[in-house]
Amino acid sequence: MCGIVGYIGEKNSVPVLIEGLKRLEYRGYDSAGIGIINTTECKVIKTKGKVAELEKLVQSENIKSNLGIGHTRWATHGEPSMKNAHPHMNEDKTMFLIHNGIIENYVSLKKGLLEEGYKFVSETDTEVLAHLIDHYLKIKNNLFQAVRYALNEVEGTYGIAVIYKNEPDKIVVAKKGSPLVIGIGKNENFIASDVNALIAHTSQVVYMEDGEIAEIFKDHFQAKTIADENIIKEIHEVDLSIDELSKGGYPHYMLKEIMEQPDSLFNSMRGRLVLKEGISKLGGLQGFEERIANSDRIIISACGTSWHAALVGEYMLEQYTGIPVEVEYASEFRYRHPIITPNDTVIFISQSGETADTLAALKEAKKKGALCLGICNVVGSSIARESEAGVYIHAGPEIGVASTKAFTSQLLVLSLITLLIARRKSLNQPEGQEIIEELQKLTHKVELILKQNELIEKIAAQYVECRNFLYLGRGYHFPVALEGALKLKEISYIHAEGYPAAEMKHGPIALIDDDMPVVFIATKDSVYEKVVNNIEEVKARKGRILAIVNEDDNEIEKLVDHVIKVPKTINMLQPILSVIPLQLLAYHIAVKKGLNVDQPRNLAKSVTVE
Ligand code: G6P
Question: Of 186, 477, 564, 598, which cross-links 473 as Cys (Cβ 3.0–4.6 Å)?
């Protein structure tokens, strides 16, 4: 999704902007641009495509400035092109604006501006806002007030940054619904849509909240509400290092993140297990345990991979706590007039903590009085801050667009929440201890799976040419089938569908022939025998089968083309292990097809628009 960076200080802003944009590349984008103002010129340079292209252009111009803003765009209104790329500007090219979000009433605003004589060069909603600010600039002759007045007319979402030739000592920023962070330096300040773009320069950040607007000078900043009242903002220390954001010797972030899973899972449970008592301790839920345990219902809402984690969470929580659980796509939940009461607990899962649909669903559930909890990876993200309570997964920065380590850490945290609540219900101490012992063995088991990387690569080589895939699993492994299929389609562009294995006979079986690979997740649980029957059904129709099985399973390999073996654990935790070969399978197929696995086409890491 769109990325924003800005700099004001004593250094040349241009390299800071380019480097910041590179750090935002993982979010997904299709064009990029920078705007700078110095004593002699105001200049915008933009291009379709990669930041590397923009960098070449910028170098050829040899520009320098102490004030600049930069943007990576993910098209919403208007195709990816140079004219639609940001910054957008006023007609005399003295004021530059970058924007993340969607101006929903841009059509009516544009009509008014056209009548006033404004001309538009792009198809974007952002250019409408640029002209609207210009309209007020002519009346107020003050950038801050012009932005404030313009935003009062705007419906929709925005994280914006604006600079103006006549006031070259400041950047004006504002936020509603899209993330915006100020980075505090010494005689320099930064702005960004994501702390990743800032941490090379500072660890001190200020999170802007919805409805806030600020003037950033090189040595201070002043935040206000959109109604022009002064507010005091807290400065936070971010605990993130540049090393965590590098590829660490791996060819892709995705592979690095898959390989990091022993560590990320360890970090997700570190300090949270009390073996002696058979309980988990989650600081972020302290004081809320009783209310959760006494809920009439738990709803889990999310998007994408996080939604798959929610499905696994449903199985866990229902099995161990006996509380009815429903899982909802956040995008459906927010518009469906959901029936929510103060006796409900609603859990929102989001790696980025910024997904627009999930955030909106959270606000909706909050309005209806439910207890709203967040499970997020990005510390200080919007969903984490909006939730009443919650648990960070502590998986570390996830840069690859296809989520991997965040998924397994989400499952792990869901198991900790399950343990926390179940121990207040009917789960006894030895049963709690058994879960903890299994959790403690998990990271070693993950290592054993990762050692099979070369085998999985060899298997992947045999499936590169396939055009369709089916992924089948039952019980805890139905969501894993969905996640395996999603991983493959996201990065390899091969059509893949996940199904509950038993549903195969109600439709997908018609697709099976010797051209159709079927991936079965067939570990030994209560439905194992039934899954073996489904494997036989595919075999009888000459389908190619790859099965994920337990280490001690010597039967399925006699039936299928390929097996990948994973260690056994309790059913609730088995998905954490069985999904890993599927991540590696998707990764190797995509690499062998020569595709960009870290930045797959059309996708964005953080979807901050509806
Ligand atoms: C995007 C990403 C997915 C992710 C989904 C939800 O579509 O490409 O990988 O699962 O958003 O993101 P979240 O940050 O809320 O988990």
Answer: 477
Q: What domain range is 377 assigned to?
A: 248-449
CA of 22 to the centre of ligand 1 (A): 20
Residues 197 and 167 in one domain: yes
Among 449, 465, 495, identify where a domain stops.
Answer: 449
Average pLDDT, the chain: 93
To test the pocket of ligand 1, the residue of 351, 354, 398, 488 to mutate (highest count of ligand atoms within 8 Å of its CB) is 351
Ligand 1 binding residues, C-beta < 6 A: 303-306, 350-352, 355, 358, 401-403, 603-607
- Per residue in 60-72, pLDDT (tens digit) is 988 999 999 999 9
- Tell me, yes or no, whether 489 and 580 share the same domain: yes
Task: State pLDDT tens for residues 546-594.
Answer: 999 999 999 999 999 999 999 999 999 999 999 999 999 999 999 999 9
2 flagged as catalytic: yes
Query: Rounded to whole angstroms, what are the CA distances from 180 to 143, 146, 174, 431?
Result: 19, 20, 8, 45
- 280 and 401 in a single domain? The answer is yes
Measure the CA–CA gap between 481 and 105, rounded to whole angstroms.
Answer: 40
Residue 491 sits in the same domain as residue 590: yes
Active site residue 539: no
pLDDT band at 39 (very low <50, low <70, confident <90, very high): confident
Instruction: Report pTM.
Output: 0.79
**Tokens standing for residue 264:** 């990320």
Domain shared by 204 and 223, yes or no: yes
